[in-house]
């Protein structure tokens, strides 16, 4: 496993652009050339009616008064249908501009999109930003491409472990290859639920714990939708802090090894300390198992993505497996993925099996950076200069319409 640190690669003469990553559970916004996003918030929008009867919206859900907390209705991007999703994204972008004190008409925008996004979704994003916000220029880049940039890899297999899903896709010469995309519906949120159910079976009530953390014992302390958001956030935080995977399949199956590990402790928001045993802490092992055939393990996603690429690329791709996303923060995950890949690759075609000893998994040096590697890759890309092929200007949008955006960005390299 190779740890990477790309801070030194950020140029000092950065292009002034706003970089957005609107993820399923978290939205990040900041300026190009900076190491960290200035704005980080949940991908959710709350609505409530104030004392005068006027409908209000809130995105900063961590600083609400008690009365609003009881009445607010929270809509989350991870659960939104298509039409609602577009509205929520627009409001999250508006919040980002406002929090950055940036006039959208004065800043070009780089927008990260998920690997599975369609050309229609990309066109609608262009329409939203050019017509709704009046931005002067736009670059839309896929999350896998940006993660590869942050990792310093022109060609790689990018494993993106979000709350909603897990995916693996090939990036070749800086451009994502859509035909290689492999996805699975089991993501960090599903594993966190398994993890915390095991804790709940031991007597820990997340619902009651979250309410007590607000300083109120009443069941009316939080609205149901806000409570659900807080509980899910807490479950993911507990899993990321205490969850772990064993370095190999053999050690995972060893009961002696499990018994030898001391229980792990976590300080809950309400002041209680929960002790998590080894059996509970290893719930994330599900990322590498079949779960009764209901999902594909990570190593299978990676190898199937590689198989979809040209055989002459297999050597470079297996040497450059990049992991990112919230769930990739689990202790021991990169090491375990590398071990599983080396084991499973032995059963594949010669172009893959011959590279078993050269398989390498790359992860950000700081674990928390794996969560934001997509945004940081966007910060690097946006700071490299206003290449005509990468960016679509407002004038081009007015002349050719939103469909032109699909020929811009890093995929424009395919048309050169």
UniProtKB/TrEMBL annotation:
The source's domain of life comes to Eukaryota
What SUPFAM superfamilies does the database record attribute to this sequence? Actin-like ATPase domain (SSF53067)
Matching InterPro entries: Actin, ATPase_NBD
Q: Name one Pfam family in it.
A: Actin
Q: Which SMART domains match?
A: ACTIN
Q: Which family does it belong to?
A: Belongs to the actin family.
Q: What PANTHER family does the record point to?
A: ACTIN
What protein am I looking at?
A: Uncharacterized protein
Annotated organism of origin: Calcidiscus leptoporus
Q: What is the lineage of its organism?
A: Eukaryota, Haptista, Haptophyta, Prymnesiophyceae, Coccolithales
């Amino acid at each position: 496993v190779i740890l990477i640190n790309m801070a030194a690669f950020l140029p000092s003469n950065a292009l002034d652009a706003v970089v957005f990553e609107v993820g399923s559970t978290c939205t990040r916004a900041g300026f190009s050339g900076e190491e960290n996003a200035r704005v980080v918030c949940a991908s959710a929008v709350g609505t409530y009616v104030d004392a005068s009867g006027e409908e209000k919206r809130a995105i900063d859900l961590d600083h609400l008064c008690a009365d609003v907390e009881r009445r607010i209705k929270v809509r989350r991007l991870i659960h939104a249908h298509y039409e609602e999703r577009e509205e929520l994204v627009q409001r999250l972008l508006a919040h980002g501009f406002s929090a950055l004190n940036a006039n959208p008409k004065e800043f070009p925008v780089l927008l990260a999109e998920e690997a599975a996004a369609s050309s229609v979704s990309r066109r609608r994003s262009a329409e939203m930003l050019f017509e709704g916000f009046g931005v002067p220029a736009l670059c839309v880049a896929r999350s896998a491409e940006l993660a590869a940039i942050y990792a310093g890899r022109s060609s790689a297999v990018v494993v993106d472990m979000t709350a909603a899903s897990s995916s693996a896709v090939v990036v070749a010469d800086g451009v994502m290859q859509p035909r290689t995309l492999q996805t699975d519906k089991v993501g960090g949120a599903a594993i966190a639920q398994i993890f915390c159910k095991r804790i709940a079976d031991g007597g820990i009530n997340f619902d009651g714990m979250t309410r007590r953390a607000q300083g109120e014992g009443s069941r009316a302390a939080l609205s149901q939708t806000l409570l659900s958001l807080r509980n899910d956030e807490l479950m993911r935080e507990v899993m990321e802090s205490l969850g772990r995977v064993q370095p190999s399949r053999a050690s995972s199956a060893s009961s002696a090894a499990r018994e030898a590990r001391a229980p792990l402790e976590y300080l809950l928001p309400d002041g209680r300390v929960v002790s998590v045993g080894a059996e509970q802490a290893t719930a994330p092992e599900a990322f590498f198992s079949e779960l009764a055939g209901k999902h594909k393990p990570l190593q299978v996603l990676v190898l199937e993505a590689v198989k979809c690429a040209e055989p002459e690329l297999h050597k470079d791709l297996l040497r450059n497996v990049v992991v990112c996303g919230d769930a990739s923060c689990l202790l021991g995950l990169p090491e375990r993925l590398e071990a599983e890949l080396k084991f499973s690759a032995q059963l594949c075609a010669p172009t893959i099996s011959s590279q078993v000893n050269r398989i390498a998994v790359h992860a950000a040096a700081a674990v928390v950076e794996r969560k934001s590697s997509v945004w940081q890759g966007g910060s690097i890309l946006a700071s490299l200069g206003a290449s005509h092929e990468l960016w679509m200007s407002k004038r081009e949008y007015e002349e050719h319409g939103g469909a032109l955006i699909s020929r811009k960005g890093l995929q424009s390299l395919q048309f050169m």
